[in-house]
Amino acid sequence: MKLDGPLENAHVHATFPLTEVEDCYNLSLKTAPLMLTRQADILEILWPERRRVRLQERETFRFRDGDELWMSRWNEEGEGDSYRCWEEIVVRNLDGDQLSCQPGDIQLIPNGEKWLLG
C-alpha cells in the first residue's frame, strides 16, 4: 500500500476491512500489544486474533498483559449519607473467566509500568 503526504514513510502493519466488523461503534486501537478492539457489553478483540469476552455491567477493558485481560469496574451502592462508590481491578483470561478481583484502579504508564491506585 502506498501512502501519500506526511504518512508516506509510515509502515503498514496490517489492513483490516471494516466489513468484517458487525458494528464499527467503539472501535479502539490498543498498543502493547497492538490490537483492534470493540467494546459494548462484550469485549471483541478483532485483530490480530479474534476473541469475544462477555463483560459485567460497568466493566471497561484497560489493557492486555500476555494471556490476561485487565479491566476496571466501578460500583456504587446506597443513597444519601450511606452512598459509596469504588473501583475494582478485574483480571480475566482470554476465555473471559475471572482470575482475580481487588479494590483499586490500575493505570498503564507509557513506559510499560502498571501503577496500582488504591
Task: Describe the structure using short key phrases.
mainly beta, 4-stranded antiparallel sheet, single chain
Strand segment tally = 10
Uncertain segments are none
Query: Gyration radius, to the nearest Å?
Result: 17 Å
Rounded mean pLDDT score: 90
Strand order of the largest sheet: 1-2-3-4
The SS-based structural class is: mainly beta
The gross shape turns out to be elongated
The number of helical runs is: 0
Fraction in beta strands:
over 45%
Question: Separation of termini?
Answer: 46 Å
Query: What number of domains?
Result: 1
Biggest sheet character: 4 strands, antiparallel
Helix content: under 10%
Along the chain, the helix and strand elements come as EEEEEEEEEE
What does this structure look like?
The chain has strands at residues 27-30, 35-39, 42-47, 51-54, 59-65, 68-77, 84-93, 98-103, 105-108, 114-117. The protein has 118 residues and is an all-beta fold. The protein has one domain. The chain has a four-stranded antiparallel β-sheet with strand order 1-2-3-4, with no helix packed on it. A four-stranded antiparallel β-sheet has the order 5-6-7-8, with no helix packed on it. The protein has a two-stranded antiparallel sheet with strand order 9-10. Strand 7 and strand 8 form a beta hairpin. The termini are far apart.
Per-chain topology:
Layout: E1 27-30, E2 35-39, E3 42-47, E4 51-54, E5 59-65, E6 68-77, E7 84-93, E8 98-103, E9 105-108, E10 114-117
Antiparallel strand pairs: 1-2, 2-3, 3-4, 5-6, 6-7, 7-8, 9-10
